[in-house]
Specification:
Mean pLDDT: 97
Strand order of the largest sheet: 6-5-14-15-16-13-17-20
Number of strands: 20
Largest sheet: 8 strands, mixed
Strand content: 25-35%
Low-confidence stretches: none
CATH architecture of the domain at 5-70 and 97-177 and 270-350: 3-Layer(bba) Sandwich
Distance between the termini: 32 Å
Radius of gyration: 21 Å
CATH class of the domain at 5-70 and 97-177 and 270-350: Alpha Beta
CATH superfamily of the domain at 5-70 and 97-177 and 270-350: FAD/NAD(P)-binding domain
CATH topology of the domain at 5-70 and 97-177 and 270-350: FAD/NAD(P)-binding domain
Oligomer: single chain
Helix content: 25-40%
Number of helices: 13
Length: 393
């Protein structure tokens, strides 16, 4: 097999890159070690930045998103029960976000690619990258018991932090900066109406909580728990009681509860690996960086990488601007580190790290400042809706 760009990973970032390239006449083959059904079963993020929405439309995969997604013009912070709203339209120059599940994004991109005849190989086993530092990289994999070699010009590693792309980087070539947080998020999904028309992030003496949503009758809720806790420790009744204790009283009183249809505990982690380019291999999304979910940046940061990589490759193939290949990592990391900072700040300000009353009062003071001053509100709004993409020129 031959292609211009081999994309490893059929999550939203790999599929989005494939669609963007396809509409510019650039051939790409996507390899995914899991089945399509497995990829669609992943429960992930649900908040899309404006830039992500625009990329979905550019990839001609945004029709259902625009019809069924829910635009949010703000978000609320609950500070020991006192609720304050951040108005995105006012403080982020009219920008908004959309609540639309990552599963739906993936479904739409899969459908668009299948409809337009793009090649995606699911259940590709034993994927291996070769000769990434030459001008003739290649990828080998096994499908239906047969070994296949895919010749290409460039490889995009969109297969996550445990994927083969990251593992193919030579030892010592990558520098990783990371932080692990001493707690996790217990999350549940329920077929109940949202707690509020917008998301609520809560800082409480008992710990963090988040009221999120997917649709008018599908809600997602989280509470901070110790890392050693197990799902069995949290029957639904205990979860609802704890959530109600941490969110504003008027919200708790009207909260509609119901059986959980999904429940999981996720640890929180910040990580950035540099650089994001190794010869003809380019890393994007979780293959290069991870953010805690507090700032709603995981999927959006990946699509930001895709935007930059797509525009670099477009100029390479259309204008022979191979000089831009050296700029991908620098441009991507410039935006990555800002998103890492915001996610770290949100996590640091909203979670309980210890029983130290002084530390908690400092958190409350900082949140009070950020949610009452023009500068603070602008800071939160601009970062939450997503910072501008870097120009590729």
């Amino acid at each position: 097999m031959k292609t211009q760009v081999a994309i490893i990973g059929a999550g939203p970032s790999g599929l989005l890159l494939g669609q963007l390239l396809h509409h510019q006449g650039i051939d790409a083959v996507i390899l995914e070690r899991r089945s399509a059904d497995y990829v669609l079963s992943r429960i992930r993020a649900g908040v899309l930045e404006q830039g992500t929405m625009e990329l979905m439309r550019e990839a001609k995969a945004g029709e259902r998103m625009d019809a069924e997604g829910h635009i949010h013009e703000g978000v609320s912070f609950s500070i020991n029960g006192l609720q304050r709203r951040i108005d995105f339209k006012k403080y982020a120059k009219g920008k908004t976000v959309m609540v639309y599940g990552q599963t739906e994004v993936t479904h739409d991109l899969m459908s668009a690619r299948a409809k337009e005849g793009g090649v995606t190989v699911y259940e590709a086993e034993n994927v291996q990258l070769h000769d990434i530092y030459t001008d003739k990289p290649r990828v080998t994999f096994t499908k239906d018991g047969k070994t296949v070699e895919l010749e290409c010009e460039y490889i995009a590693g969109c297969d996550g932090s445990h994927g083969v792309s990251r593992q193919s980087v030579p030892k010592g070539a990558m520098t990783t900066y990371e932080r692990t947080y001493p707690f996790g998020w217990l999350g549940i999904m329920s077929r109940t109406p949202p707690a509020d028309h917008e998301l609520i992030y809560a800082n409480h003496a008992r710990g963090f909580a988040l009221c999120s949503q997917r649709t008018p009758m599908l809600s997602r809720f989280y509470v901070q728990v110790p890392l050693e806790d197990k799902i069995e420790d949290w029957p639904d009744a205990r979860f609802w009681d704890e959530l109600k204790a941490r969110i504003p009283q008027h919200t708790a009183e009207k909260l509609v509860t119901g059986p959980s249809i999904e429940k999981s505990i996720a640890p929180l982690h910040s990580s950035v690996s540099e650089p994001m380019r190794y010869g003809r291999l380019f890393l994007a999304g979780d293959a290069a960086h991870i953010v805690p979910p507090t700032g709603a940046k995981g999927l959006n940061l990946a699509t930001g990488d895709v935007s930059i990589l797509f525009r670099v490759l477009l100029k390479v193939f259309k204008e022979n601007r191979t000089d831009l290949l050296d700029k991908y990592s620098e441009l991507a990391l410039h935006r990555v580190w800002k998103a890492e900072r915001f996610s770290w700040w949100m996590t640091s300000m909203l979670h309980k790290f210890s029983d130290d009353p002084f530390a908690h009062r400092i958190q409350l003071a900082e949140l009070d400042y950020y949610t009452t001053s023009e500068a603070g509100l602008t800071n939160i709004a601009e970062n939450y809706v997503g910072l501008p993409y870097e120009n590729v020129e």
